[in-house]
Amino acid sequence: MFDSPSDFSIAARSSDEIDELKRAYESRATLRELAQEFRIHRGTAADLLERVGVARRRKGPTAKEMKRAIRMHEAGESTATIGQRLGYAADTIRNRLLSAGVQMRGTHDWHARE
After folding, report:
1. At CB < 8 A and 24+ separation, what contacts does 102-109 make?
2. What tens digit of pLDDT does each residue of 78-108 get?
3. pTM of this prediction?
4. What per-residue confidence (pLDDT) applies to 87?
5. How far is the C-alpha of 61 from the C-alpha of 88, rounded, in Å?
6. What is the mean pLDDT of residues 20-49?
7. Crossing angle for the helix pair 31-38 and 42-51, nearest 10 degrees?
């Protein structure tokens, strides 16, 4: 009857729930947040959104955004602040900065800027 285990979860969702999921995603909720709120797997949330024609957001910062993030980090901004200003999670910013070879500060090093 169902092609995959997630098909059952998808079929069991009401149109109201799917509309609510769509609104939350379009209001910038992450797939992880949706999964927690709706008690479904992130993949199921992504499948539901795809089936109702919602385009997935891009995966991460562009090269231009990363240049800005590096400048902000060098100026002493936290990854949380950078992420908030650029529209990404702090962990995404941290991981991308590390991938770019940026030396991360410790949690108490913000005051040691010169």
Report:
1. 102/70, 102/73
2. 999 999 998 888 999 999 999 999 999 876 5
3. 0.50
4. 82
5. 8
6. 89
7. 100
